[in-house]
Design brief:
The complex is a heterodimer of chains A (254) and B (264). Chain A contains ten helices and no strands. The longest helix of chain A has 31 residues. With 264 residues, chain B is of the alpha/beta class. Chain B has a single domain, classed as P-loop containing nucleotide triphosphate hydrolases (Rossmann fold, 3-Layer(aba) Sandwich), CATH 3.40.50. Chain B contains ten helices and nine strands. In chain B, the strands form two sheets. Chain B has a six-stranded mixed β-sheet, with helices on both faces. In chain B, strands 2-1-4 form a three-stranded antiparallel β-sheet, covered by helices on one side. Classes of the chains: A mainly alpha (254), B alpha/beta (264). Chains A and B meet through helix 1, helix 3 and helix 4 of A and helix 2, helix 3 and helix 10 of B.
Amino acid sequence: MAKIKNMIAIYTLWVREIKKYFRSKSRIIGSLGQPILFLVALGFGLGPIFKAAGQGDYIQFLVPGIISMSILFLAIFSGISVIWDRQFGFLKETLVAPVPRWQIMLGRTLGGATVALLQGVIVFLISFLAGFKLQSFGLLALAFVFMFLIALLFTALGTGIASILEDMHGFQLIMNFLVMPIFFLSGALFPLKGLPKVLETIVRFDPLAYGVDGLRGTLGGVAQFGLFNDFAILSIIVVILISLGSYLFSKIQV
Amino acid sequence: MSENIIEIKNLTKKFKDFMAVDSITFNVKKGEIFAFLGPNGAGKTTTIKMLTTLANPTSGDILINGYDPTKQQKEARASFGIVFQDPSLDDDLTAYENLNLHGMLYGVKIKDRRERIKQLMSFVELWDRKDDLVKHFSGGMKRRLEIARGFLHHPKVLFLDEPTIGLDPQTRNHIWTYLKKMNKEEGTTVFLTTHYMEEADKVSDRIAIIDHGKIVAQGTSEELKASTKTNSLEDAFLALTGKAIREETVKNQAMSGRARAWRR
């Protein structure tokens, strides 16, 4: 009985995120702009050089990175929406509800992650228009698992950060000093082989690197770290960030 | 002796260098309409936040419906409904969805939820707008919807923090009518703050006045007038709290300004 009630709170907030996503057409289309631009400009722009360097088809290489990018941005954004809810007041409505705060956090995070996953799938489908070819269908299900892990990880991170921030003033800071480095140092755009030692070390601490790697491995490329390692590391970070995020969320006072 | 639904003893909230609420003690009786009055920055909102689990007291005891909101959060939260000073609806959802979400979070069973939402939305005269997005609602409509939402889960106490602020006289009149009616019919205790002394005088059974974080007087409107030898609650209020204008120290004021700037 108590169990069912728990599920309802989580489910309620999950549905809210999904509804809001489908109602905001401009957000869906708007957040497709960047990945498409990257795909076209970098994919076709750097393609010939990539090929000349003997690395093969750049689009094939790039697509998992671009999917990861679009999931990263939307997931962080979904998490950060806690700040919007705080400013527009809705957050208080959920904070006084007779439901443990971690359930509120989990519902929001699952909802945000689902939305980010949907966005990743849309980008994945668009990439076929840019000439992406799926090498094998066998690992496709696993590819979606990796997409969802990336989505969960960064939604939880965004929620945790937003729980500490009081307003949107810190947003630029987070974008420029956290999200952008996470993206550019993840190997989304370039191969991780033969990097300078310092950079290679930094990449190892970038959670998105394992997401990109796992996605690349399952979408027909080569997984540098190994699929199992990618999966294990991502899962562990997801658990840590959801726990930490729930903790920070439960400490919110308004 | 009627039973107390809210008991507050030596409640204190201290921010770094500022005593927001300074050892206040008072009770609210079951079924009454209780007005909590005070100038801006006196500590009203901070008190409500502590009563409703949104802020932790520095010290002191609170009991709501017999539960301690710092320890028995879930039970305390299920006991009250609240209409905040600032809007707290989700603008991107419809009026019905907002209430439904609330009912689900509060564990109201689906059948009861449907009936109750229809009953309350008809009561605040919004049933014909149930499928409209809340962002298309006026301030008064949002307020009425929030009041309906506050009653949805059959709370024992409804907190209202300046529920009529910025609304036209018609809407204000309606809101007080709703509250009195629900108070009478369902026996819901109402705890409210307002700056409109006439309204407080008209609706409330008992009044407490807070200033600089301290309770300076409490009793019925008649008692307050008699003790200050004044003819209106407004004069009694001014006699008790002085005529100096107060600084707004509440950080929410700045927050809501920024919120507007970020609105897309």
